[in-house]
Amino acid sequence: MTVASKIAADPRLDGLTVPAGGWPTTARSSALMRLQTMGLPVKRDEYWRYTDPSALVCEAPLPCDPLQTSTPIFGTIDKTRLVFVDGVFDAEQSDNPDLAGVEITRLSEVNDLDLHWAQGLYGKLEEAGQSPVARPLAALNTAQATEGMLVRVTGKPKKPLHISYRQSSKTSEAILHHVIKVEAGAELTLLETGTPGARSNVVLEVDIADGGTLHHIRPQGRAHGRHVATHLFARVATEATLKSFTMSLNGQLTRNEIVTEIVGDDAAVHVGGACVGDGDAFHHDDTVFITHDAVNCESRQVFKKVLRNGATGVFQGKILVKAGAQKTDGYQISQALLLDGDSQFLAKPELEIYADDVACSHGSTSGAIDEDAMFYLRSRGVPEKEAQNLLVIAFLGEALDEIENEDLAADLQSRLEAWFSRHST
Amino acid sequence: MLEIKNLHVQLEDEDKQILKGVNLTVGAGQVHAIMGPNGSGKSTLSYVLSGKSGYEVTDGTAILDDVDLLDLDPEERAAAGLFLAFQYPVEIPGVGNMTFLRTAVNSQRKARGEDEMSAGDFLKFIREKAKSLKIDADMLKRPVNVGFSGGEKKRNEILQMAMLEPKMCILDETDSGLDVDAMKLVAEGVNALRSEGRSFLVITHYQRLLDHIKPDVVHIMADGRIIKSGGPELALEVENNGYADLLAEVA
């Protein structure tokens, strides 16, 4: 099929126009053109081999009942909160965005505000991340998003910045595009929590300058029917650090793509995730692409999934080491614990290396719960369900260990424990 | 205390009889030892009593103080007062030793309708028990048995025994893989737990352990049966002459 016929065959793209609103319009138009060339993803695309994108690109979102909020996540942690309801910023529910060391601008309000730093990034990292693999949902996002935050980190704010998503409408569609620029030597902890909408498409462009650090912690919300596509595009400079961790409980379809390019020496990128899936409607996909294009850098991918009652998990992870990226230390592990024979884990770990002095390893496992450990626990009086929960949480705990901040990790751990105690019938 | 009658057991997956009519009665406060050549069914007996899957009981009973163990799940047997010190304690990455022990203690208390132990009381209790077994704070913090030496694993088993205060303790080759000093330490731990209300079944290949844990009765097991029982002198006889004479005697 030619590109032209693909466009003609897709009425969903024909009607698309670019929202007006200041300088981002240029990036939007360019993204729309790119999108029209690549077309929307279909199941037969190699990159969508294990995940059917149709629910992410059909005309209207499938309905999803919003989850009644119980105890707010990270409730005991002091933070500056920016709230989006159904994908629209809600100033009233948000904190005053005065956080020393951070400049925050709402995307919908940029107009012709001169944000030189953001103009050089908006849609640019997304565009760079389109090669060697097309990511049309991200181009769609750049073309269509009117909401999101442009965040410039110039210092080391005392508390985390919290982007909090809430869903109130059963059929809402949320398209959010954030840009985070961490200036040299600056450091931010970014919390991104909740379900943005019944269907959501979220892009995060992250640029970390020399010696800068971003900690990104993302619990994705527990609405059962949600459909989510996320992209994290990051460029990491000399001695800079990116640590991103995602926890996914529930949800119907989740595709989290992480595309990171290490462009400066002595930098580190750690990405990880813990996912719990229950039921045959559950499908969760982590797709990671880390490019090493500098000397003496380290990257780590640690992804763990617990799947049961027919749930499906996918991991596609790649480490690309470019020629000259010597002394690269690349590590990748993806593991699934399958609690029954109906659940499945599909993994495609890849290494592509063009330098000769590197240490790269990858591993992928899927298996059942350790029967010897189960018997050991039960022989000490721990009931079967509780023993299983202990082992499952221990398994996921190895992924949670990737989170540096112990308070944040403890909050996520307690949520996992609560999930399993609620669901162990 | 423990009364095993005519116990017949075969493997679930294959038609292989392992226990062929075991009869054994351990009175309250007694220490019984079981010795026997490899493959005689000693470890199978300990697994079947504690409820490991993979075995099928085709005949017989095992009663612990009026409770028929063989009908119960492993955790129910534990709550009823049974404890197995494993020959090969299992490593459980990601589960802290302390968390594991507190969960175990409180699960058993809950199953027996008792109040759970408070965090403070538990800490006091475990520190006291750990000290006598030379188990340091670091070993309590580490994941269960992960990276423990052979001796540390066995001491950890005895610590669990001390914390859970069972009525009936089965020690499955607790002396295997231990040097003399470690064996002494483990034996002292066991001896400290001996009481009128607590019985022991000590499975071992060697008489050596029985120098430290003095048995009241010694049984010789061969081919899925107990073929001879006697006093501590029986263990010495095995040590000096091996099993050949005993086996010939029965045959």
UniProtKB/TrEMBL annotation, chain A:
Domain of life, per UniProt, equals: Bacteria
Name the InterPro entries on file: Fe-S_cluster_assembly_SufBD, SUF_FeS_clus_asmbl_SufBD_core, SUF_FeS_clus_asmbl_SufBD_sf
- Biological process terms in GO annotation: iron-sulfur cluster assembly
Q: Where is the SUF system FeS cluster assembly SufBD core domain?
A: 168-395
Pfam families named in the record: SUFBD_core (PF01458)
Which protein, by its recorded name, is this? Fe-S cluster assembly protein SufD
Provenance organism: Litoreibacter halocynthiae
Name the lineage.
Bacteria, Pseudomonadati, Pseudomonadota, Alphaproteobacteria, Rhodobacterales
UniProtKB/TrEMBL annotation, chain B:
- Does the keyword section mention RNA-binding? no
Q: Which SMART domains match?
A: AAA
Q: Where is the ABC transporter domain?
A: 2-248
Lipid metabolism keyword on record: no
Q: Which GO terms describe its molecular function?
A: ATP binding; ATP hydrolysis activity
Q: InterPro entries in the record, alphabetically?
A: AAA+_ATPase, ABC_transporter-like_ATP-bd, ABC_transporter-like_CS, FeS-cluster_ATPase_SufC, P-loop_NTPase
SUPFAM superfamilies to which the protein is assigned, alphabetical: P-loop containing nucleoside triphosphate hydrolases
| Pfam families tied to this protein | ABC_tran
Keywords, sorted A to Z: ATP-binding, Nucleotide-binding
Instruction: Cite the PROSITE patterns for this sequence.
Output: ABC_TRANSPORTER_1, ABC_TRANSPORTER_2
NCBIfam families, per the entry: sufC (TIGR01978)
- UniProt similarity note: Belongs to the ABC transporter superfamily. Ycf16 family.
**What's the protein name?**
Fe-S cluster assembly ATP-binding protein
Q: Which organism is it from?
A: Litoreibacter halocynthiae
